[in-house]
Amino acid sequence: MVCCGALAADIRQIATRRGWPVVVRPLPALLHNRPEKIADYAERIVVTAHAAGRSVILAYADCGSYGGLDAVCARHGVRRLPGLHCYDVYAGSSQVAELFAADPGTYLLTDFLVRSFKRTVLAELGLDAHPELWPDYFGHYRRLVWLAQDPTPELAAAAERIAALFRLPLTRVDTGTRRLERELATLLAETEDGRRP
Questions:
Q1: pLDDT single digits (tens) 51-60
Q2: Interval 121-160: pLDDT, tens
Q3: 154 Cβ contact partners less than 8 Å away, ≥ 6 residues apart
Q4: Are β-strands 106-110 and 79-80 bridged in parallel, bridged antiparallel, or unpaired?
Q5: Is 158:117 a contact under the CB 8 Å cutoff?
Q6: Measured distance CA(76)–CA(5) in Å, rounded
Q7: Rounded to two decimals, what is the model's pTM?
Q8: Fewer C-beta neighbours within 10 Å, C or N terminus of the chain?
Q9: Phi and psi dihedrals of 17, rounded to 5?
Q10: Which of 97, 109, 83, 98 is nearest to 174 (CA)?
Q11: Residue among 168, 120, 170 at smallest CA distance from 145
């Protein structure tokens, strides 16, 4: 199971709990900052796994590959998670569309982003060294929505600190991981049945 690094912890927990005989192979979550590279990374692992006689599932939404992952799926007869991004995977595309329709200036967080915000956002964008760039990156946002998978008190406090950085209100939408689990189960069943896209 080749997965997005931002989904890896949840996927491992689900696979362990369900007793799925899978190897979870995450790609670096920081590829989200260079999404044009995601399909190439994924394809290399798919080719290697197929050469070893293993079945492969892409536990990725499109994630900014603009169809690149779909092309990998078509070339190699594999399937991927539905949706444009991990927000769709957790909350569903219709709920995400409603959030953006209500306010296009919405910045979305997941548990992964809340946990890794300093590294994956502040450091990667250079905002730790150049905070004066904050308005250039984030000046147009008007609210934060945390799509919470497992909203512990520690994560809730971290999400509030992020909202304070933005100087914006924080809304929490509890999504859990049910949708992700259901979609993974569907992909596994289709792979075991030998169906192809």
A1: 999 999 999 9
A2: 999 999 999 999 999 999 999 999 999 999 999 999 999 9
A3: none
A4: unpaired
A5: yes
A6: 21
A7: 0.90
A8: C
A9: -60, -40
A10: 109
A11: 170
